[in-house]
Each structure stands twice: as structure tokens, then as C-alpha cells.
Amino acid sequence: MAEILKYLAKLPTPLTAVTLIVGDEGAGTLELANLLLQQITDYHLRVHTATRLPLPEDGAASRPNFDFVIFLLDITRMESFKQTEEALQYVDVAYFHGRSCLIVNGAKKPDRWANDYSIVEELANAYNLQIICCQLEDEEDGAVVRRRLTAPAI
Amino acid sequence: MESDTTLTSAETEQWLTTPLTQINDGQATATSGVLASRRSAALRRQKSRLIGTASTKIGASRRRTRTPRIQTEPETLLAAELVNKTWSIYKASPLYSFSINLLKNYSKSLTVELEAAIKKGVAVGLDSETTCKATFSVFEGFAYDQDGAQSVKLSVSAKRKQISDNEPSEVLTLLLTGRMNDASKSISGSFTCCPVMLTRGQVMFTDIVMAWMQNQFDCSIYRMSFSQYHLAWMVAMWAGILPENTSPKSVMLVYSVPETEGVDTLTLSINPHDCKRLWVSVHNADSSSFLESEVHTFHKSLELHFYQHFKIHLSCMQLSSIGTPIVFVSSEGKMKMYSVEHVDSVLQLLVDLIVEEYPDRLQESL
């Protein structure tokens, strides 16, 4: 049985937010990570990236506790949707209580969508994920995503 | 550079057996978890709705019905006009105060507009000596509902004055069609629903005509574009139809390859008979509707087959155009129909897709 990503399996680091971005190759995982790290925050922000879940066994010891999981999906490719759908099954339910979100990349080009939007919506609703639609290469969109993801919770 | 990868029918022999069984396995693994159970519940609901009522309303693009073909003489006239030509598809919001009795006035008004545009020098390549004539006409006897709304054809022809024996050449043909089951009725008073516009001809004239229409009928007209999702639906829906008389065109799926140098497109062409066999094995023949799960299985089997031979995941590519024995459609809104008998079902699908985009309130009044 593959390892499920557990919340608080380890002690969290004080004043540090550790984020995990899950998105298949080409979905823009690195772009999003760089984007997040540009933001100046009151806390330390650490970003980890993964192409798929479950995470590999080796290196598990040195891995910190993840406070937030970002699922990144490229709506223009069917493969990306499938991978996200699969990855969602290896995540602890505690993350779905406001500790995760779904970012839909490529949303500004509806003619290139591989999937009907309602299917993506259904996926997000099933896991209680908040959807953020964006076009990551778009500067304005990137700034909005960055601000929304790093804003302190109210 | 373009690389074409074509599957021959010899290779297609085995796929009906091997990949399909694998797909069943694939589905079994996929149907675990919260989402899968939710979705299958939704599908079950659709199925029961399908059996229970004969409603023609399409449930949010998840289920589609092939329209039964009722052919009458004048219809074939229109169909013959449409087939074997490449058309650009435009979508239109309902037309305000459009009347079939005023076509002559419209023709005059548009002719004036076109000539003004030519005088202004908007039209490149035409000197001011050129005369233009716009003619709206009705496809006689082709009424798609009791109110008498019909398909309308607009043809624009240009003629140069200096050369007297010059035949006026047709520069633009535009067809307003909106025949459909329920959406054709005029909406509350003065609106006419005529969602599909097909054009063929010079872009310059198309722009002028579209601008005139938007002003005249207070509507919005946009270029139709198809998402990969819709193209995938179309292939699956029409893969099972083979026109009887001629040798059918092969089923074609053109994928654009993202971010790879040297290869732009990838063409998968399949023998139509093989494709039909595959579809028959996937589709429930007793039902007149198509389910999303069937479309999904169909494409998954094609992708698996392709992966077995070429080790390429087609689902990583973007589907850019499709060809079936009855129609060719590209994602940027061009199409070419090949079969007179199936013009109806193609147009019906276009209408459905456009009407689905209308706001809910408008859809209800249709």
C-alpha cells in the first residue's frame, strides 16, 4: 500500500510555511514555485514540488511536514487531469479542510481545453478544493495567484 | 516540419482484442475513491433519465443524441449546397427584429454598406469602380418550424465596371441556419434564434457583413472555436457512421505537439471500418444517446493502441482537428462536410453547442 501524505506526521517548523506543489510535467510547477518565492512574507516560505503522489520512500526522513498542498492542473492536456485525479487519492483527508487548493492553468484559452470545465469543477467539489483559474505565464494572473496563495488567513 | 504517423489496417487488426481488455482493467482501477463513485452516480442518473423521458434537452454536454434523419426534397437542396465545401463557422446571439419578409430591404441596405466600404478604400484589392451586390434569399420550402422561420442564404458578388462582359464573381456566401428541434422558435417577441452562420469567401467581406449584421440585428457574432473536448465527442459520435455509396474517408485525428522542436503535428489516421468496429464494441447499440463514459473509453483505447506501437502518450498532446467519414472539423472553427445525409446531425450538434453557451435564462425560454 502506497504511503498516504499525512498531515502533522512530523512536528511543524515554527514560523515556516512548507508548501507542496503537485503537478505533472509541463503544467508549470516550477514557474509557480518561483512565483511564490518572489513574494515577501512575514514567515519563511518553503516550496517543494512533485510530479506525482505518493512521494518516494527514500528521503522521507528528511522531508518536513507539509502545511499546504497545491494541486496544479493544466487544463489543455488530458494527461494532466488524470495525474491530478490520481494524486488526490494519496492525500490525507486533513488537507482537504482548507489546507489545499486546485490551480487550473491554461484557463484563459477555452478553445484549447481538453476537458469540459464542469468535470474539473466536479473534481474540485468532490475533494472540497478551492479552484483558482489562471494563466501562469500571464504576469497579471501570476501576481494574483501569488497574492492569494500567500495571503495570511483571515 | 511535419511528421505524419499513419496506422495501417494491418496493425489495427489486433487492437480490438488486446487494448480493449486492458481498458477494462484501467477503468476498474479508476473507479475507486470518492470522485469515481460520485461520477458514476451522475451517469446512472443520466441513464435513468434517458430511459424515463424522451426529452431532447441536452444535459450539460455530457450526453448527446444523434438526430434522426427525416429527409425531404428541399432539404437535400440545402445539404447539397453545404457538402464538399470548406465553411467557417460563426456563432450568433439571437437576432433582434429579423423578419423573413424584409429580406429585400436587407439586401439593399447591405449593398449600400458594401459599396460605401469599397469607396472608403477599406476593401483591399478592389478599386472604387467595382460594384457589389448583396442578395438575401430564402431556401424555398425549407421551413424548420411552424412560424415560418427558414434558412437564409446571403450571397455577395462583385463585378468590375470596366470589363463589361465580366461575369460577377461571388465573393462571399453566408448561410444562416438554425434548424433545430426547440431552439428555433422566436424568443419572446422580436428575437429570432439563428445561432449558426456558415461563411465561405473573402475574409474582408466577411468582416464587413458581420459588422453590418451586428448593427442591424443588435446581436453579437463570434468565430466558433472547438475545444479538444468537443472534438473528441465529435469523433466518437460520428466514427460509427459510414456513408453507403462512396468509399468512406478515413478517420483522422490531428494532434498538435506542444513545445517540441522539429515536430509540429501528429496525424493518426484509422481505417473507418476498424473505427466503426471499435465504436460498436464500446457503444450500447440499444440506446440512441451517447454517454461520456463511452466517449472516454473509445479515446482511451485509441490512445493505448497508439502507445503500444509508438510509445507516445496522445493524451499529452492537443487535439487540433478531426476527420470522420462524414465531416472534417478543425479547432479554429472550419469544417467540411462530406455526406449529404448527415448534414442534419452535424448542424444539430453545432446548434446544441452554441445554444449551450447562451445564458440559462435564455435557454429556458427557447
UniProtKB/TrEMBL annotation, chain A:
Location(s) in or outside the cell: Chromosome, Centromere; Nucleus
InterPro entries found in the cross-reference section: Centromere_Cenp-M, P-loop_NTPase
Matches recorded under Pfam families: CENP-M (PF11111)
UniProt main location, coarse: nucleus
Protein name: Centromere protein M
Domain of life according to the entry: Eukaryota
Annotated organism of origin: Priapulus caudatus (Priapulid worm)
Alphabetically ordered keywords of this record: Centromere, Chromosome, Nucleus
Gene that encodes the chain: LOC106816747
Alphabetical list of Gene3D superfamilies matching this protein: P-loop containing nucleotide triphosphate hydrolases
From TrEMBL, chain B:
Keyword set includes Nucleus: yes
Superkingdom field: Eukaryota
InterPro entries: CENP-L
Cellular localisation: Chromosome, Centromere; Nucleus
Keyword Translocase: no
Alphabetized UniProt keyword annotations: Centromere, Chromosome, Nucleus
PANTHER family from the UniProt entry: CENTROMERE PROTEIN L (PTHR31740)
Family recorded in the similarity comment: Belongs to the CENP-L/IML3 family.
Full protein name: Centromere protein L
Source species: Priapulus caudatus (Priapulid worm)
Lineage, broadest ranks: Eukaryota, Metazoa, Ecdysozoa, Scalidophora, Priapulida
